[in-house]
Amino acid sequence: MNDDTIRNHVLYILSKYPATRKYDNLLDLRFLIKIGFAWRRGDRIIIDMSKAEEFPSFASIERVRRKIQNDEGLYKPDEETQEKREKSRGEFKEKYSNKERSVDEMPNSQLMY
To answer: What is the DSSP letter of 38?
Structure first.
């Protein structure tokens, strides 16, 4: 699934389900439901794991959500969530930028293999 298709689905979900603007796990589940890989049964969500290799990456879905909210300014979460995210970004930058640090302190995404 390409990024344009993911973006179209994410835009639809963010517009229809405001809670997904705040919770990535809810966005991921709504995405699976929208593309037919999961469905609701009462208060449960059933995921068709036989198609797991076809699932788009949750990281891709969340990256598209961040672009829509941060770069385009659309479907922003509530003020409290925005403040928490900004605080987390600041703490991350403070901890991991311009400092000598050991490999043990670095997140996996910054390690080179």
So the answer is: E
